[in-house]
Amino acid sequence: MGPSRSSFRMPEGPELHLASHFVNETCKGLVFGGCVEKSSVSRNPEVPFESSAYHISALARGKELRLTLSPLPGSQPPQKPLSLVFRFGMSGSFQLVPAEALPRHAHLRFYTAPPAPRLALCFVDIRRFGHWDPGGEWQPGRGPCVLLEYERFSLCCETGPVGDSRVQSKCGPFDHLADDLQVENVLRNLSDRAFDRPICEALLDQRFFNGIGNYLRAEILYRSAGRLLKIPPFEKARTVLEALQQCRPSPELTLSQKIKAKLQNPDLLELCHLVPKEVVQLGGKGYGPERGEEDFAAFRAWLRCYGVPGMSSLRDRHGRTIWFQGDPGPLAPKEDLPLSSKPISRTQRARKHPPKSIAQQSEGASLQQNQETPTAPENGKRRGRQASTGRRRRPPKSKPDTQPKEAGESSAS
Predict the structure, then answer these.
(1) pLDDT per residue over 230-245, tens digit each?
(2) Interval 125-157: pLDDT, tens
(3) 145 touches 12 (CB < 8 A)
(4) Residue ranges under compositional bias (Polar residues) (predicted)?
(5) Which residues lie below 8 Å from residue 242, measured CB to CB, with a gap of 6+?
(6) Backbone angles phi, psi at 110, to 5 degrees
(7) Considering only Cβ atoms within 10 Å of each terminal Cβ, which end of the chain, N or C, has fewer?
(8) How confident is the model at residue 285, as a pLDDT?
(9) d(CA 329, CA 222)
């Protein structure tokens, strides 16, 4: 069975970049004013910002997005620019809507200033695993962005500094060339224990592959099978990446020769840039002109492996499903066959894979597991312990003064 409809919205690097582009395009020329409004149910911090007139801009890096609020000259009270760094969790996105028609689960709102009809830029997060940090700093420990750092390299790797228009003109069309920062960040750290794990798990480690998530890892590994390499998802990561060290292009090659070689046969690290870039170029995914599921049609047609009928799937050690074709590799879980080829009863599945708490399934703080911090870990942990005993307890009765949850959200969201 393929991924659920909602899983197509799970934000990875390309979705953060699409969100950044959406904010910059839709907020261009708009003047915002007043306080930043947070929903009463969100457990994220308040945003200490108020200005009579300010602009909003955005920049994405890997699986984070920085929103900058810039007061205009003469605005009151005097205020310095403020940056917020967002991690989208499992369902975060931005929407620009009329102020009187706020969407459900709009947990942070930025309103335009009068007299024009008021609009609201909203951070919408149904499951409430998204997080924002008013400190404005990228999360420490994340590696180079698989999209942005590659583009930066393409501008400066040859003969000019970043921003040199001559270099942009020369190298712009070939921004898929391998980035020294990204490649060396991986190849110089192959002794790290992360690379003892299967390659499908290493690809989720944001210290090395900032922006890669569950659907991207499946598509990257599947597309590598059509190249000179065929990489099973449960092959040891170090084995796969050490082989790349033997295949780096000779420094004696000319630029045109390097470009031709990489166009014909991009390696795994280059696919980590090319595949996310394809998704960005598709557009849509909630930020296009179509409405609802139609905005995801191009993305669904683009998928070759993730959730595609006929593909096999297994759960990795974090319980996340990896889709693939062919041999899973020597580090595949021994107690489980690919889900598509061995039906498992509900009782067997419960014994082998006890239900995880929402806090475990969501994107949490560990960069190694490619997760973000859930906003309500206590409830999730309690539910996780109950699940591990195999006993189902009756839910506690709600107290009269308990704040009702928003419709459609779980108790741990």
Answers:
(1) 789 999 999 999 887 7
(2) 999 999 999 989 999 999 999 998 864 423 333
(3) no
(4) 358-376
(5) 190
(6) -120, 120
(7) N
(8) 85
(9) 13
Which of the residues 14, 15, 63, 151 is marked catalytic?
63
Could you tell me which residues are beta bridge partners of residue 266?
none
- Rounded to two decimals, the pTM is 0.74
| Predicted pLDDT at 372 | 44
Torsion angle of C-alpha atoms 137, 130, 42, 22, degrees rounded to 10: 80
Task: Tell me the sheet residues that pair with 84.
Answer: 67
- What residue type is assigned to position 333 of the chain? P
**Is 63 in the active site?**
yes
75-128 pLDDT, tens digit per residue, is: 999 999 999 999 999 999 999 999 999 999 999 999 999 998 999 999 999 999
pLDDT at residue 178 tops 70: no
37 labelled catalytic: no
Q: What Rg, from alpha-carbon coordinates, does the chain have?
A: 23
To the query of whether residue 11 is one of the catalytic residues in this protein, the response is yes
Q: What DSSP assignment string belongs to 199-258?
A: HHHHTT-TTTSBT--HHHHHHHHHHHTTSS----TTSBHHHHHHHHHTTPPPTTS-HHHH
Alpha helices, DSSP H, located in 320-410: 346-352, 358-361, 377-389
**Is the pLDDT confidence value at 247 over 60?**
yes
d(CA 168, CA 151): 10
Residue 318, token pair as written in the block? 């974090």
What mean pLDDT comes out for the span 333-359? 52
φ/ψ (deg, to 5) at 257: -70, -40
Supply 376's token pair.
């309500």
State which amino acid sits at residue 324: F
Q: Which two tokens stand for residue 379?
A: 């409830």
> Taking residues 187-201, what's their average pLDDT?
93
Other C-beta atoms closer than 10 Å to the C-beta of 140 total: 6
Q: So what's the pLDDT on residue 118?
A: 96
In terms of phi and psi (left: phi > 0; alpha: psi -120 to 50; beta: otherwise), the region of 390 is left
